[in-house]
Each structure stands twice: as C-alpha cells, then as structure tokens.
Amino acid sequence: MPNPRVVIAVLALAGMSASFMQTIVLPIQSELPELLNSTREDTAWVITSTLLTASVVTPIAGRLGDMYGKRRIALALLAVLVLGSVIAAVSHGVPGLIVGRALQGAVMGVIPLGISILRDTLHEDRLGGAIALVSATLGIGGAIGLPVSAIVSESFDWHTLFWLSAVLGVVNFVLVLSFVPVSALRTPARFDWVGAVGLAVGLVGVLLAVSKGNEWGWAAPSTLALGLGGLVVLLAWGAFELRVRDPLVDLRVAARPAVLLTNLASITVGFAMFASNVVFPQLLELPVATGVGIGLSLLAASLVLMPSGLTMMVMSPVAARLSRVYGPKLLLVLGGGLLVVSYALSYFFATGWWQVLIINIVIGVGIGLAYAAMPTLIMRAVPAAETAAANGLNALMRSLGTSFASAAIGGLLALYSVDSGGVQTPTLEGFQLAYLIGGGGAVVGVIIALFIPRVVPADPRPSLPA
Predict the structure, then answer these.
(1) Closest C-alpha to 103, from 145, 160, 49
(2) CA distances, 250 to each of 237, 239, 274, 308 (Å)
(3) Distance between CA atoms of residues 318 and 335, nearest Å
(4) According to the model, what pLDDT value does residue 431 have?
(5) What is the pLDDT averaged over residues 438-449?
(6) Which of 316, 330, 340, 436 could pair with 132 in a Cys bridge, judged by C-beta atoms 3.0 to 4.6 Å apart?
(7) Cα distance between residue 81 and residue 60, in whole Å
(8) Transmembrane region positions (predicted)?
(9) Nearest to 48 by CA among 102, 96, 87, 107
(10) With 90 as the cut, is the pLDDT of residue 153 above it?
(11) CA 409 to mean position of chain CA atoms
C-alpha cells in the first residue's frame, strides 16, 4: 500500500493544478484581443469555453470513475489537460486557443475523483483532513496560481503560460500513475450515453445564457432561447434519468434530504466565494483617482488575494478535527457564517489593501471549513459505489454558484458604473450592493445548512480494508 501522505500530496497537487487552469489566462485577458488580432467578444470565449467544459465533464467523469476506476479516469483527464495545453501553446489565433482552453477545462473533474479515491484508500483517521485539503484546492489553486500567472505573463511570451500548464499536466500524470492506488470498488453498469448528452446540452444552454446574459442582454432572443431551452432539456433529462436502468445521475439518491440540501448549500457557498473573486480584484486595481479604487498593479493585487488560498490549506487539519468532534454540518454552518462576517466587514471597512487582505483571510477560513464539510456530508448519504458521481454532482453545484455570481456581480458592477477618463468604472454604491448580495447568498447557505439532517455512515470503509 502506498504511503498515505504521498497519496494525499499527489491528489492535492492534481487538484491545485486543475484549479489553476481556471485563472491561468486572467492576467492576459484584457490583452487577448490585441494578441490574437480579434474582437473582445470572440476572445471572451477563451474563458467561457473552460467553464462550460468543466461543468459538463465533472459529473460525467464522476460516473465513469465509479464504473471503470477513478484513477483511470483521473489519468485520462490529465492527458486531456496536456493535449489542450499543447494546442493552446502552439496557437496564434482564437479558434485554436478556444479549443485548447476547452480541453483544459475537463481537468476540473480530477478534484471530485480525488476526493472519492481518498475515501476508497485511506484509513478513517486520515480521511477528514485529506478530504478537507483536496476539496479546498478548488480555491487554493486559483489563489496561488493568479500571481504565478501574472509573473509569467509579465516576464515571458504569453504562450509560456500554456507550456507551463502542459508540464504541470505531465508531472501530475506521472505522479498519479506512480503513487495513487487502483480503487477496488467498481459499479457494474452500462454507461448512460443519452443521459450524458442530455445533461451536456441542458447545462451548456443554461450556463451560456447565464455567462453571456450581461453581454447579449438578458431579454435578448439568444439569451432566452438558450436559457429556457436548456431548462426544458434538463427537465426532460430528469424524467429520462428516473426511468433508465443505469442512470448517469441517480436522482432518487440526489433527492435524499442530506444530499439535496448539501448541494443547494453548495450553490450558495460557491456564489458567495466567487462574488468576492469578482469584486476584490477590481477594487484593488482601480485607480485611486476614481474615488473607490486602491490603485494596485495586477501582481500586487494577486499577492493581496493569495493568502486566502494559503489559509484554506492551513485550515484543512483544523477542519478535520472540528468535523470529527462536532460533525460536518456544523462545519458548513460555521463556514457560511464566516462568509457573512466577511461581507459585513467589506461593506464597512474595505477601503485599503490591508483591510482587503484581512477580509480575504476570513473568507479563506470560511471557504476552507465549508468546502471540507460538503464532500463528507455527501459521502455519508450516498452508496459507496456512487461516491465519485455524487461528488461530481456536488462540484457541479459549486460551479453553478460561481457562474451565477460572475453574471450577477459582473452585471451589477457594470450597471452601477460611471465614466472615469473614458473608462466605465464601478461606483462605491455598486461595490456595497455587491457585498450585500454576496453576504445574502452566504446567509441563504447557512439557513439551508441548518436543515441538513444528520446521517450516520453505514459503511465507513467501503472499498479497501483498514
């Protein structure tokens, strides 16, 4: 049996590398139209394509992991990451970069797969801290990766970012292949191709409407057609999944109160977390002359925000101990409560870089606790043979929350903006409303979490003997 610490470290690195892919192009996002000789509307798909692929692939990869082996599917996703990174690295136009970024987005499925591998392979004494760490990599990778991306993009040609991601993919592939054991737990079933296509079509429609609503107009025919069409497809997909013998997502299990309420809370926590990711970079980087900005460079702003991710990492063992003593439900409530506190502090005190630094550390503690609780709550309430699919669905719920936050907070700041030297900049009122909405999302999450029923796991060692 491989060293448990090595297994945890390898899966945590894979999770951070996957999360890093979400922020890798942010430092050059504003320069992409010039770099690619294209329009801003076209280059926006470089970001959107990654979001869409991550959301669609994550639940599907979870189901495939339960059926064919979690390590095998994780390796396949890492191979896709390498392929996408190389395509992006050699591209000089928008189409190639979009294809590469879409393939990179698939690697987000590694995080829920890694959490499920931990359940299958680790002793119960190590499981809580390991789950907390790998779950928190959703935030850690982005927080650490942003300043790294800024430094690389300022010092080298922008293609270097993608060669770096290709190297990360190869390193992770070799480490997972060498040190992560093969899970003995498999689900004998036929893969639900119709369900996979239906879920993909429905999610793409809804997510495109949400992510492009501000740009296209919320009442535009394209937005309404995609959004409503996606919802209709998802409703039909749900009806189909209830009738098929081996569904992609077992909706009867997903409807269990503990699973359903945890997933709903995940949407709100994801919303609250990403609302701060939209607000604080703008606040830190806006010129002081605007009356609301702090005037930092991209690199300096990234360094102010980075301790949030480091805090999530530090909180992992603390979250594990709290979960063992008080239970994961209280952990989720406490994490959501700290997010409420952080937005209250933001409303009154976010006027300088050091205040934003402190507030982001509080956010890091809250997200670290909440993200540690969610997989544990899910895995206590689902059959052992469905852990990867259930974790994949939970990761999708968090992604939906971040997508809604990006659209809502981005649209709000665009609405409450004024002309400053020929550039539209958000007003103080816009930032304060964003804090209220982000805090409101966290409050809803706390209320939902309070109603999650307590579930005693029937089989804490589902796969391998201790």
Answers:
(1) 49
(2) 12, 11, 28, 35
(3) 12
(4) 95
(5) 97
(6) 316
(7) 16
(8) 43-61, 73-92, 98-118, 130-152, 158-179, 191-210, 216-237, 258-280, 292-318, 330-350, 356-374, 395-418, 430-452
(9) 102
(10) no
(11) 17
Can you spell out the DSSP letters for 105-147?
Answer: HGGGGHHHHHHHHHHHHS-HHHHHHHHHHHHHHHHHHHHHHHH
CB 269: neighbour CB atoms within 10 A?
Answer: 31
Structure tokens at 313: 């990492």
List, in order, residues 6 or more apart from 189 with CB less than 8 Å away: 67, 246
Task: Quote the tokens at residue 417.
Answer: 């903006």
What does the alpha-carbon distance between residue 48 and residue 211 come to, in Å, rounded to a whole number?
7
Residue 197 and residue 254: Cα distance in Å, rounded? Answer: 19
Radius of gyration of the chain (CA): 21
| Percentage of the chain lying above the pLDDT 70 cut | 97
Q: Under CATH, what is the fold of the domain 1-182?
A: Growth Hormone; Chain: A; (1.20.1250)
In the structure, what pLDDT confidence band is assigned to residue 429 with cuts at 50, 70 and 90?
A: very high
Residue type for position 283: L
Distance CA 419, CA 455 (A): 54
Bridge partners, residue 184, by sequence = none
d(CA 369, CA 318): 8
Q: How many CB atoms lie within 10 A of CB 294?
A: 23
Beta bridge mates, 420? 423
Segment 158-168 shows an average pLDDT of 95
- The angle formed by the CA atoms of residues 252, 258 and 263, to the nearest 5 degrees, is 85
Q: Are strands 423-426 and 417-420 parallel, antiparallel or unpaired?
A: antiparallel
Tell me the CA end-to-end span of the chain in Å, nearest whole number: 11
Q: Does domain 250-466 have CATH number 1.20.1250.20?
A: yes
Say if residue 234 is exposed, middle or buried (CB neighbours under 10 Å; 0-12, 13-18, 19+): middle
Token code pair at residue 6: 């090595």
Sign of torsion over alpha carbons 153, 286, 52, 444 = positive
Q: Looking at residue 457, what is its pLDDT?
A: 55
> In 362-374, which positions are buried (b, 16+ CB within 10 angstroms) versus exposed (e)?
bbbbbbbbbbbbb
Check if the beta carbon of residue 115 is closer than 8 Å to that of residue 375: yes
What pLDDT sits at residue 335? Answer: 96
- Identify residue 170 by its one-letter amino acid code: V
The continuous run of DSSP H or E covering 82 comes out as: helix 70-89
What is the C-alpha to C-alpha distance for residues 414 and 281, in angstroms, rounded to an integer? 15
Residue 418 β-bridge partners: 425
User: How many CA within 13 A on the CB side of residue 216?
Assistant: 19
